[in-house]
Amino acid sequence: MDAGQKLIYFDNASTSWPKPEAVYRFMIDSYRSTGVSPGRSGHELGIEAAGLLDALRLRLTRFFGADEDAPERLCFGYNATDALNLIIPGLVGAGDHVVTTELEHNSVIRPINHLVRDGGVQATFVPFDGGGFVDPDDIARAIRPNTRLVIVNHGSNVIGTVQPAAEIGRICRERDIPFALDVSQTAGMVPIDMKTMHVDVLAFTGHKSLMGATGIGGLCVRKHLDIRQVRAGGTGVNSEYPYQLAEYPWRLEYGTINMLGVAALWAGQEWLHSEGLENIYAREMRLARRFVEGVREIPTVQLYCCDSLKDHISTISLNVGGLDAADAGLRLDVKHDIATRTGLQCAPLVHKRIGTAARRGTVRFSIGAFNTEEEIDAAIAAVAEVAAWAASR
């Protein structure tokens, strides 16, 4: 990038950037003052670090509408992929059946496929309709007597549609089947209430709309559900016990916690509270509508699953003319300093369903909390230029 040029960033579905300034400040200050292992030792710094960790557990438990009297069931890990690799094999075993959807990220697809290939598990991937939504009745029809888990991506990281989680959760609750929700794309953007949505366990990551750092995420488990342990290691307590502890959070939390990530998530929660989720979401969706309305006027642009932006997040996928997605994204980057995400976005079944796999996916614009109208207008103009360039080749 030439000196003086400013990158326009539309890859927030991957990692939100920039973060609020308060997040950067709190991360640095906290790590300098108490950047030690929490609760491993009886000294003052360790106790102070443990205090921040425990406070964040409770805060996120409330944020997700889980059981406030059991914050220890908010367990930290690296990210949502890490959490999903605890949830799926922790609930499904040989002879069991799992129901999921074609909207899933590889963090769900691959663990399930490994269990099917290697572990005697059966799986059903429920398709979505032309608007990008799964019909809850299709979930109900996919359930079998041996179904032990239904797992759904709340918000698609490719087409941005938000699934009817409460309706799916009600079906699962009526049939006494655990319902897991991947909220990687929706946490920090739309309200999530595990109780009213009948969600038994969710997986989250900190580095997207929760405004935290990379390398922190986890899962939140309701009190009535237990997940089998599939790992073991250090906990910092009861070191003489030769097996992994059965109590939460140690049941599902291993090794030293990423305290820099904890600090970032805490500051992210402060920022989300001060701004208000509804305000953040409304602003991002205004920008998304402006973008969709603008690029829709370009004759050779194909948009996917955004005829209506109802029940949608600010993630938009498109293709330009006959270009491969990678070629269009490269020109946006090199000629216009616009960062997007091209390719299959780790969700190959979505692209197979919408017919974009042969074009190596889509160009994804994911609008974040710090994008502006001027950047949206620049993106529309850039897409128009790419379309004109493609037509002239």
Brief description of this entry?
38% of the residues lie in helices and 14% in strands. With 393 residues, the chain is an alpha/beta fold.
Question: How does this model look, in words?
Answer:
By secondary structure, the protein is α/β, with parallel strands linked by helices. It folds into two domains: 8-20 and 276-392, Aspartate Aminotransferase, domain 1; 21-274, Type I PLP-dependent aspartate aminotransferase-like (Major domain) (Aspartate Aminotransferase, domain 2). The protein has helices at residues 21-34, 44-63, 80-91, 106-118, 136-142, 165-174, 259-275, 277-295, 325-336, 348-354, 373-392; strands at 8-9, 74-77, 97-101, 122-126, 147-153, 179-182, 201-205, 217-221, 301-303, 315-320, 338-339, 341-343, 362-366. A seven-stranded mixed β-sheet has the order 2-8-7-6-5-3-4, with helices on both faces. Strands 9-10-13-12 form a four-stranded antiparallel β-sheet, covered by helices on one side. The protein has a two-stranded parallel sheet with strand order 1-11. Strand 3 (97-101), helix 4 and strand 4 form a beta-alpha-beta unit. Helix 3 (80-91) packs parallel to helix 4 (106-118). The longest helix has 20 residues, at 44-63. The radius of gyration is 22 Å and the shape is globular.
